[in-house]
Amino acid sequence: MGKEIERKFLVSGEEWRAMVEADIHIRQFYLVAEPSRTVRVRISNDAAAKLTLKFGSQARQRDEFEYPVPLAQAQEMQAFAIGHVIEKTRHHVRHRGYLYEVDVFGGTLAGLVIAELETPEDVPDEMLPDWLGREVTGEPRFYNASLALGGIAEIVA
Q1: Can you tell me the distance from the alpha carbon of 142 to that of 151, in angstroms, rounded to the nearest whole number?
Q2: Is residue 1 scored above 60 in pLDDT?
Q3: Collapsed DSSP state (helix, strand, coil) of residue 15
Q4: Residues 6+ positions from 29 with CB-CB distance below 8 Å
Q5: How far apart are CA 131 and CA 15, in angstroms?
Q6: Which candidate among 40, 63, 77, 114 keeps its CA 20 to 30 Å from the CA of 50?
Q7: Residues recognised as catalytic
C-alpha cells in the first residue's frame, strides 16, 4: 500500500510542452466509483494494464493499491465499465525535480488539460511551475471518476 499526496491543476500555459520527457496513451475506465473508493482499470499504450484501488475521501491523500492485469483480461473488463471510457495522453514533465503528469484529454473531454503532482511530501506553492493554472485539488468534478460518470459538458465548455 502506498499513500499519495496528489494535487491537481488546470493547465494555463503551453511552456510545459517543450519539457515533455515521455508520452503515454491511456484508456481508463471505472468498475466502482464512490466518494470514498474507486476501482479503475488503466490500459497504457495498448500494451499493459493495471488495476488500481483507491480508498479515502481526503482530497490530497488516499490509500492506493495497484496491480498488473493481463492485457486481454483488462480489455474484457471494459464491458463492465460504468460511465464513459476516458481517453487521454499523459505527458511526463519535470520541474524543479518533481514529475508532473500533464493529461491532455480526448474524445468527449477534448480541450481539458489537467496536471497532477503526486509526491510523498507536500510541495510548497512557490516551487510550482508558472504554467499551472487554478488548483482543482479537492474539487470532485475534476476527479477522473467524476469525468467518467458525467459532468463533461460543464467542464470543457
Answers
A1: 9
A2: no
A3: helix
A4: 40, 41, 77, 78, 81, 82, 83, 84, 85, 86, 148
A5: 6
A6: 114
A7: 30
What is the rounded CA–CA span in Å between residue 18 and residue 37?
36
- In this structure, the number of other CB atoms found within 10 A of the CB of residue 117 comes to 22
Cα 16 to its chain centre, rounded Å, is: 17
Tens-place pLDDT, residues 80-113: 999 999 999 999 999 999 999 999 999 889 999 9
Structure confidence at residue 59 (pLDDT) = 61
- Cell numbers standing for residue 50: 493495471
Cell (9 digits) for 53: 484501488
- Cell match 466509483: residue? 33
Helix (H, G, I), strand (E, B) or coil at 76: helix
Q: Check residue 127 and give left, alpha or beta (phi > 0: left; psi -120 to 50: alpha).
A: alpha
pLDDT in tens, 10-48: 999 899 999 999 999 999 999 999 988 999 999 999 999
Q: Is 0.85 topped by the overall pTM?
A: yes
Q: Which helix (H) or strand (E) holds 47?
A: none
Q: Return the number of other C-beta atoms located less than 10 Å from residue 57's C-beta.
A: 10
